[in-house]
Inverse folding.
């Protein structure tokens, strides 16, 4: 024998009051993540734009003859421009100088005696940057170079994300971006030739 539902139980089954708050509780976390993600992406794009623009200004200033002896001031101005947007950013700056654009990111020459296409510690090489060891990049580190030299100027920026909640879902709490540009110094004098030294370990 089946009992017919009472009026009160029928009202409870058909009552939809309060469902909106439950639906919101389910949707809200996803919605918040989308909003926060959009804001983070937008902020990241803005920071990249500011960093690249500041780097271009600093690189041009570095190549001027009038600034050849004041690279620390140029770097300080670059940091100040970036920190107007991200005051607590950690900023690292690196310069590598080359004789020509074709030398940028090019390894030092070596005798590949065993034909494996890689430099081995016992092979002879031509030391182009004066550090007495073979390098995968022949540029002179931390150097603005001289007249008419080519400089690879790189800046790396690390800063905390806007929302600290990313750690809760296993994401890093910091953004790290980098930008680089390659420019030639003004020809304010005779360019020094980069003469390599042959070294056989």
């Amino acid at each position: 024998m089946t009992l017919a539902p009472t009026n009160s139980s029928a009202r409870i089954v058909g009552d939809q009051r309060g469902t909106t708050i439950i639906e919101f509780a389910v949707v809200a976390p996803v919605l918040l993540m989308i909003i926060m993600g959009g804001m983070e992406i937008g902020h990241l794009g803005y920071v990249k734009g500011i960093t690249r623009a500041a780097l271009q200004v600093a690189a041009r200033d570095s190549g001027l003859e009038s600034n050849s002896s004041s690279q620390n001031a140029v770097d300080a101005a670059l940091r100040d421009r970036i920190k107007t947007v991200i005051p607590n950013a950690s900023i690292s700056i690196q310069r590598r100088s080359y004789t020509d654009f074709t030398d940028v990111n090019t390894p030092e020459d070596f005798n590949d005696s065993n034909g494996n296409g890689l430099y081995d510690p016992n092979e002879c090489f031509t030391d182009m940057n004066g550090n007495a060891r073979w390098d995968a990049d022949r540029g002179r580190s931390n150097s603005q170079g001289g007249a008419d030299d080519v400089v690879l100027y790189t800046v790396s920026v690390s800063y905390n994300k806007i929302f600290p909640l990313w750690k809760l879902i296993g994401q890093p709490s910091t953004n790290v971006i980098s930008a680089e540009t390659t420019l030639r110094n003004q020809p304010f004098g005779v360019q020094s030739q980069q003469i390599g030294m042959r070294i056989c370990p």
